[in-house]
Amino acid sequence: MTSCTPTIVAIKNQWLHQQVEVEHPTPESLRGREIYQSLSAAQTVHAFVPDSVVLSENELYLVDFHRLTILFAMMQAKRIRDKSAQAELLEFFAQIILSKPCELYVGFSDGQPCAAAMLTEHDQEWLISDCVMLPNSRFARQHDLVNAIVAHKSSYCENPKTVWLETSQE
Length: 170
Description:
The structure is a single chain. With 170 residues, the protein is an alpha+beta fold. It has five helices and six strands. It has helices at residues 7-18, 27-40, 66-77, 83-94, 142-154; strands at 43-48, 60-62, 102-109, 112-122, 125-133, 162-168. A six-stranded mixed β-sheet has the order 1-6-5-4-3-2, with helices on both faces. The longest helix has 14 residues, at 27-40. The mean pLDDT is 93. This is Flavodoxin.
């Protein structure tokens, strides 16, 4: 991450960490959290200036029920190639209980899930993170997905002072 990592990144990481802090977490979800933490260590954060976009219906969904949570988890598992690690990452993300300060999004192209990301909101800042995309015709670049999420959130919420984007160093 950058040498001056915004506080909002720690808030997002703590929220995710707590998702498996339950009475009887599965061993797979705990290993999935470890995998996620190693993936997070390879991320950088920078300010993002969104472009204005027009959203079409059925392109981007705020995750608000379990089936979309599972689709989000399935997309997140695609971040790595190893099948057993994918299963553990899937288990970790499937445990998510939807709550503030984080929101999950799933993007669709031609009726198929093709993108996923998380938005964390804190102190008039938004962090867009955990962007995963499959080849598709709607979200050709990560910025397309991020702009769509910002447009969606802005449609019912005051714009933040700063939008941060967490991306892979690769």
